[in-house]
Amino acid sequence: ANHAKIKIVSLDDQALAAPAVVDTKQLIKVNHAIGIITTYNDPPLAQYKIGQQLGAPIIAITNDPAIPNKPNLYLMGSLFTNEEAVSFNWAKSHGVKSVGLLFANNYTAYDISVWQKIADNVFGSPQASQTFDAASTDVTTQLQALQAKSPDAISPLASGSLILTVAQDMAQLKMTQKIVTDAGSLNTPPQVTTMSAWNGAIAGVPVMNPTKWLNSASLAAKLGPASINTEFAANAVYLIKAAVESL
Q1: What is the pTM for the complete model shown?
Q2: Residues near 113 by Cβ (< 8 Å), separated by ≥ 6?
Q3: Maximum distance among all alpha carbons in the chain?
Q4: Confidence bin at 204 (pLDDT 50/70/90)
């Protein structure tokens, strides 16, 4: 309304609580942030305490029921549960009858329970699962336990370098199962899609195509055709706008 200009500073917390706390302190103390926009679950749960101490609200894009009713913390909805429902249903329609669920423990108990429930409902029975330490560089033991259950596919609840660890260990174990996960996990990091065990991964793009206007905008900006990641980034702009206006 008063044409004030807002500067947005971005730091990577790796979806982990400890880096998120460090980043939050820097953003508020050094960059003089009027508020913090965050996501996943562990970071907001750690950040709201720092925000409360330093006087900056924490705005979280999450749906974990462990988070509501925290002081100085505001919620803005879910990120991944709808995508996973689409992924599992898409896989089922392409012949997958069961999945082995591999959970990184830097996701909350709620996230894990939702993932499990979605898989159980889609495939019609309890699906085998294993949890691994997010600080681990080896998940072969958990993968072997899942392999013993003979699932048609493996579905990791992890991101970034953890996804690459899963892919590398599956290749080492010569596992033949396909992968069912959201497109973002398959695209980050890019090396994942070149891993032999992940060739022909089922869930490459089991999501709705980006809208025509978004594709046109992406092409006009010489960024190439829009993807699911472009859509995520575009939505983030509106989330940030709403957050700034609320502040």
Answers
A1: 0.62
A2: none
A3: 63
A4: very low
